[in-house]
């Protein structure tokens, strides 16, 4: 597949919400995993999705990104209703919605530049992979999209040489490259040391700076409170609160979530 040359360009205007869910229900057999979800993701906002284990966070983003079909309800992308019979991961990609899956999406032994183009090679007019151009784009992603300046990593480094946080950066940089309007992250900091978590938070900020939106699932409330523009709290499949971080301290937020758990 041929790529457009401009890495990390700001997405086009002309719509209000990137994604909107209306009355979404999801059942797994008798488990009611999502209950009457109404949720919009606006342009260029970081939405932190929080809630207890099993609250439905992963299911929600899977429905949003075409991995799982909702049992009922409606999905709008850029304000247009999606035909749910057709909605798929493929279509979500085509509509500029990218999901970063935990590390497994990177090829350990391959240089970084190859990792940016897995499955989406740039070919020249003879049909050969344009290595020079891919390296140049990869370098632009490293330096400009995710800011790997002066840390001893080049496009020829392998994934195996990277720390956990840096790997997340590569995966996020790759998602940014595909002209995405929305990047979805499901617990990207799981199992990372504190220093590595800081890096990931920095990458999340870069998503926003680049003009994109981000849905960020994070179990550490202090971290998500720090980077999100809006926090959406899920409890047993329902959206129970939408909070602006400036209106609620981390400790008040923690209390709130503990109280929800107590009510179970
Ligand atoms: N593929 C599945 N099959 C059956 N039940 C599932 C499946 N995925 C999730 N669930 C159930 O749906 C509920 C929500 O899970 P999940 O979305 O993974 O929560 P979270 O990401 O907030 O921890 C849980 O009760 C979970 O056991
Ligand atoms: Mg989950």
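^ Assign residues to that structure.
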């Amino acid at each position: 597949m041929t790529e457009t040359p401009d890495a990390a360009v700001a997405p086009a205007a002309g719509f209000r919400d990137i994604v909107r869910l209306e009355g979404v229900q999801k059942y797994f057999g008798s488990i009611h995993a999502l209950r009457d979800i109404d949720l919009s993701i606006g342009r260029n906002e970081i939405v932190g999705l929080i809630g207890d284990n099993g609250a439905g966070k992963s299911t929600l983003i899977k429905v949003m990104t075409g991995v799982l079909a909702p049992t009922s309800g409606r999905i709008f992308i850029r304000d247009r209703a999606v035909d749910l019979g057709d909605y798929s991961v493929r279509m979500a990609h085509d509509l500029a919605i990218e999901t970063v899956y935990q590390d497994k999406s990177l090829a350990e032994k391959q240089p970084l530049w190859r990792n940016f183009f897995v499955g989406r090679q740039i070919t020249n007019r003879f049909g050969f992979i344009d290595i020079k151009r891919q390296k140049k784009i990869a370098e632009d992603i490293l330096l400009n999209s995710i800011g790997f300046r002066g840390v001893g990593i080049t496009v020829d480094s392998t994934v195996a040489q990277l720390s956990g946080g840096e790997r997340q950066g590569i995966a996020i940089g790759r998602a940014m490259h595909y002209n995405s309007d929305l990047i979805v992250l499901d617990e990207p900091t799981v199992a990372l040391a504190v220093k590595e978590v800081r890096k990931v938070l920095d990458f999340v900020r870069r998503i926003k700076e680049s003009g994109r939106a981000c849905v960020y699932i994070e179990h550490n409330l202090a971290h998500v409170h720090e980077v999100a523009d809006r926090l959406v709290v899920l409890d047993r499949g329902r959206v129970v609160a939408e909070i602006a971080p400036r209106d609620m301290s981390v400790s008040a937020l923690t209390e709130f979530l503990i109280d929800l758990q107590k009510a179970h």
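The domain at 17-262 is CATH 3.40.50.300 (Rossmann fold).
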